Automatic annotation (TrEMBL):
NCBIfam families: sufC. The keyword ATP-binding applies. This is Fe-S cluster assembly ATPase SufC. Pfam families: ABC_tran. Residues 2-248 form the ABC transporter domain. Keywords: ATP-binding, Nucleotide-binding. The gene is sufC. Belongs to the ABC transporter superfamily. Ycf16 family. It comes from the Bacteria.
């Protein structure tokens, strides 16, 4: 589904190189964890997958279902089935969460040449999924993310993800700022979306999210390169011994 080859990228503004030759292959049905110390380039990798303009790819390529992802704009990527849950969800004052979700779903449908959802059809879908994620009607009426707690933001984001039914989900530090209960609700929401047709890249600094979302493959990113790949036990090893064994390896 996704193949990242020798990806080098830098910050557009000042030319600082962040990614220094990332290789990553993700098949449909797989959940990959990308772990690594702060500043290793995890968020940068997710932003590049989403098509954020602050970064420049200087070398390498990204194939998504065999197509060049880097040639596609952010909207095209979303329509093609890429979804990114950001580490820091943005607040949109003045736009009710419900309205935002409807706009996102209909934009995706339009890009795919499908008709907009009718209001009853949209409401039916939202209510069914929102209930699973403890997203209340009150939250749906409030402006997106404004005054939401950390847990509410992440739940709203997973709700958006479940409504868009992406084929590739990239979750950047979904566990940050969550207490144990919120972590469980969010993880269950993510686990429900696991399927043979869908792949996920779960980015996290800590092992604890991976107690709930069990990955098939674990990668360690350090200084802009994947320096180690293993099974789920690699995450446990990192929890016990820290990143020190791997951090030097990329230098
Ligand atoms: P991680 O998510 O692994 O903590 P990031 O991808 O956020 O790492 O950042 C990698 C490095 O690049 C850090 O040193 C960070 O400060 C720097 N960086 C990332 N994006 C920007 C940006 N837009 N402007 C300046 N520095 C950035
Ligand atoms: Mg960070
Ligand atoms: Mg980050």
């Amino acid at each position: 589904m996704l193949e990242i080859k020798n990806l080098h990228a830098r910050i557009a503004e000042d030319g600082t190189e962040i990614l220094r030759g990332v290789d990553l292959k993700v098949n449909a049905g797989e959940v990959h964890a990308v772990m690594g110390p702060n500043g290793s380039g995890k968020s940068t990798l997710s932003y590049i997958l989403a098509g954020k303009s602050d970064y420049e790819v200087t070398e390498g390529e990204i194939l998504f279902h065999g197509e060049n992802l880097l040639d596609m704009g952010p909207d095209e990527r979303a329509a093609a089935g890429v979804f990114l849950a950001f580490q820091y969800p943005i607040e949109i004052p003045g736009v009710a969460t419900m309205e935002f979700l409807k706009t996102a779903m209909n934009a995706q449908r339009k890009a795919r040449g499908e008709d907009a959802l009718t209001i009853p059809d949209f409401m039916k879908r939202v209510k069914a999924r929102a209930a699973d994620l403890n997203v209340t009607m009150d939250m749906l009426k409030r402006p997106l993310n404004v005054g939401f707690s950390g847990g509410e933001k992440k739940r709203a984001e997973i709700l958006q993800m479940s409504l868009l039914e992406p084929s590739l989900c990239v979750l950047d530090e979904t566990d940050s700022g969550l207490d144990i209960d919120a972590l469980r609700v969010v993880s269950e929401g993510v686990n429900k979306l696991r399927s043979p047709e869908r792949a996920m890249i779960v980015i996290t600094h800590y092992q604890r999210l991976l107690d709930h979302i069990i990955p098939d493959v674990v990668h360690v990113l350090s200084k802009g390169k994947i320096v180690k790949t293993g099974g789920k036990e690699l995450a446990l090893d990192l929890e016990k011994n820290g990143y020190a064994d791997y951090v030097g390896a990329a230098a």
